[in-house]
């Protein structure tokens, strides 16, 4: 579903959100910005958990600005999302469907479908406390997509996962967005993540849009010092781990503002790189 956010505003003592955005149906859009710039607040405004003071929000052709969150049909995965610990995986994922008063049969069908999409087939009866970090995240995502939301909102979904799991989850999210017609809006402070996953990136600062465009556009032509500084020295497009002189490195394709695409060797903490071409 297409989403249009038209000059919405919300003021707090320390921050004013003043934001416009268009999201294409079926696309993956990332809003990237430093901690405290208003990303989580923005998702709350879009989902209706917070009321806007000004502006309009359209889901498709329909204005939803004053519509309560439960009637907006958005799937939400919040930062450090917690699953319902007293419910098993099946009941966690089926929660939204049950709230929507779907039949038992339909709940079962949709939960099993969501489980398949997140590669957790056979996990239905597991206790959520016994899941690994990645399995918990995928269960939270399954819970958010089980009722076929018009819009999936993800708040830093890869935050706090270890490096290996992060890479796996990145691939998983990419596959999920490619395999389904879901419209996804993710917020993150990690430009690498956004770069890898998105059709469009919006760089946010202080409640506002600094720049928006295709990932490469943002990266190669940052319009001001803030964006330039934020997109960092390079972006890893794809890479695999390699041991060089006993050290863990990543060899891969990456993008440098001055040079465009190239092959490089990057140290594992991504603080240092060497061009190979
Ligand atoms: N309920 C609130 N009351 C007062 N200030 C708030 C409230 N919610 C958000 N803010 C302000 O917005 C800022 C950004 O919050 P947040 O959306 O969590 O940023 P981010 O997700 O980008 O880290 C906070 O630091 C605070 O100044
Ligand atoms: Mg946040």
What does this protein look like?
The protein is built from 8 helices and 14 strands. It is α/β, with parallel strands linked by helices and 277 residues long. The chain folds into 2 domains: 3-231, 3-Layer(aba) Sandwich (Rossmann fold), CATH 3.40.50; 233-277, no CATH class. The protein has a 6-stranded mixed beta sheet, sandwiched between helices. The longest helix is centred in the middle third of the chain and has 17 residues, at 163-179. The protein is globular, with a radius of gyration of 20 Å. It starts with a strand and ends with a strand. Magnesium ion binds next to helix 1.
Write the layout of secondary structure elements.
Elements: E1 3-11, E2 16-23, E3 28-32, H1 39-47, E4 54-59, E5 62-63, E6 74-77, H2 89-99, H3 104-117, H4 133-145, E7 151-155, H5 163-179, E8 184-188, H6 191-197, E9 200-205, E10 208-213, H7 215-220, H8 225-230, E11 235-244, E12 247-256, E13 260-267, E14 273-275
Parallel strand pairs: 3-8, 3-9, 6-7, 7-8
Antiparallel strand pairs: 1-2, 1-4, 4-5, 9-10, 11-12, 12-13, 13-14
The chain binds adenosine-5'-diphosphate and magnesium ion (MG).
Adenosine-5'-diphosphate binds next to helix 1.
């Amino acid at each position: 579903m297409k989403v249009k956010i038209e000059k919405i505003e919300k003021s707090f003592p320390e921050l004013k959100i003043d934001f416009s955005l268009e999201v294409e149906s079926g696309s993956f859009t990332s809003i990237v910005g430093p901690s405290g710039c208003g990303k989580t607040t923005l998702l709350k405004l879009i989902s209706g958990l917070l009321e806007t003071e000004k502006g309009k929000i359209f889901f498709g052709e329909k204005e939803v600005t004053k519509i309560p969150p439960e009637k907006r049909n958005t799937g939400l995965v919040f930062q450090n999302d917690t699953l319902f610990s007293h419910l098993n995986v099946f009941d966690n994922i089926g929660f939204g469907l049950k709230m929507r008063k779907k039949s038992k049969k339909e709940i079962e069908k949709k939960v099993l479908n969501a489980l398949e999409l997140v590669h957790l087939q056979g996990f239905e009866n597991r206790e959520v406390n016994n899941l690994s970090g990645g399995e918990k995240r995928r269960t939270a995502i399954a819970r958010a997509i089980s009722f076929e939301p018009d819009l999936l909102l993800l708040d830093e979904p890869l935050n706090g996962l270890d490096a290996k799991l992060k890479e796996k989850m990145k691939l998983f999210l990419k596959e999920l967005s490619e395999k389904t017609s879901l419209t996804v809006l993710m917020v993150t402070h990690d430009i690498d993540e956004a770069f890898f996953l998105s059709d469009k990136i919006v760089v946010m600062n202080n409640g506002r849009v600094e720049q928006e465009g295709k990932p490469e556009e943002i990266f190669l032509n940052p319009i001001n010092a803030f964006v330039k500084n934020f997109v960092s020295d390079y972006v890893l497009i794809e890479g695999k781990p390699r041991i060089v002189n006993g050290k863990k490195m990543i060899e891969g394709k990456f993008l440098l503002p001055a040079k465009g695409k190239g092959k490089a060797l990057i140290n594992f903490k991504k603080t240092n790189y060497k061009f190979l071409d």
